[in-house]
Amino acid sequence: MADDRPALPPLRDVIARHGLAASKALGQNFLFDEQLLDRIAAIPGALTDAPAFEVGPGPGGLTRAILRAGARLVAVERDDRCLPALAELSDAFPGQLRVIPGDAMQVDARAEAGNGAHIIANLPYNVGTPLLVGWLSAAWSPLPWWSSLTLMFQMEVAERIVAKPGTDHYGRLAVLSQWRSDARIAMKVHRSAFTPPPKVMSAVVHITPKPAPDDVQLKHLERLTAAAFGQRRKMLRQSLKGLPGALAALEAEGIDPQRRAETVSVEEFVALARRLGQV
């Protein structure tokens, strides 16, 4: 069967032609390995005619992989230098790519990409975590507006997202990522795959939402984890004493107040947050 996808110039040629040196100020690190990029774009599953959203496409390496997979993609890029290269991709994939110049922190992703979008991005290191927290904090009714998150992070951030209780990386980000979602490291990426190579290893995290537990509000979970992990080396009876209703919730759930936050499971935090909502 013939491959009817457009023939594209090598990414290195595109970058050289447009003079696109990676910007340290924008947290840019480019990936050139097209097989690797295709593997990342395959993580969400079938993308044919599916809505997708990308942050920081840069010269368009991952962008072309997402387009090859058949998605209808909205990409947000704040580096004006990259817009001509992305315009070439728009021409190569008619009707599949819309580029929004601007800052992803200021863009309403839901309004631009639409419900059911797969968010796929090699996130700029300096905005990755705030963007993730924003997507995880979306309204669930019974699921969020996005279908999945496939995101590249520094390895340390990836480990914090998927961490289990009792580990050094377990904290607020793990609870936020896992209380109504499944999070896993889908792929590790060596620093040498990037240009310029970052100082640390990276990983692609894949997050899929599931219905939120009944009678639990995000605001109560956030207050609880902020207090508990804000003084993570202290016993819960100390770290939670300033949060109204928290110590009573511990007692009601049979959780030993001498435990520390890093030993409390996601399910236990959810149960405590449910109790706080009843105060």
From TrEMBL:
Keywords: Cytoplasm, Methyltransferase, RNA-binding, rRNA processing, S-adenosyl-L-methionine, Transferase
Predominant localisation class: cytoplasm
Enzyme Commission number(s) of this protein: 2.1.1.182
Presence of the UniProt keyword Protein transport in the record: no
Class of this enzyme: transferase
Domain Ribosomal RNA adenine methylase transferase N-terminal per the UniProt entry, residue ranges: 36-211
Places the protein is found: Cytoplasm
Record-linked InterPro entries: KsgA/Erm (IPR001737), rRNA_Ade_diMease-like_C (IPR023165), rRNA_Ade_Mease_Trfase_CS (IPR020596), rRNA_Ade_methylase_Trfase_N (IPR020598), rRNA_adenine_dimethylase (IPR011530), SAM-dependent_MTases_sf (IPR029063)
Pfam families, per the entry: RrnaAD
The keyword Transferase belongs to this UniProt entry's keyword annotation: yes
Chain positions recorded as S-adenosyl-L-methionine binding sites: 29, 31, 56, 77, 103, 122
Gene Ontology terms, MF aspect: 16S rRNA (adenine(1518)-N(6)/adenine(1519)-N(6))-dimethyltransferase activity
The reaction(s) this protein catalyses: adenosine(1518)/adenosine(1519) in 16S rRNA + 4 S-adenosyl-L-methionine = N(6)-dimethyladenosine(1518)/N(6)-dimethyladenosine(1519) in 16S rRNA + 4 S-adenosyl-L-homocysteine + 4 H(+)
Domain of life: Bacteria
Stored HAMAP family: 16SrRNA_methyltr_A (MF_00607)
Family according to the record: Belongs to the class I-like SAM-binding methyltransferase superfamily. rRNA adenine N(6)-methyltransferase family. RsmA subfamily.
Function in brief: Specifically dimethylates two adjacent adenosines (A1518 and A1519) in the loop of a conserved hairpin near the 3'-end of 16S rRNA in the 30S particle. May play a critical role in biogenesis of 30S subunits.
Protein name: Ribosomal RNA small subunit methyltransferase A
Organism expressing this protein natively: Sphingobium naphthae
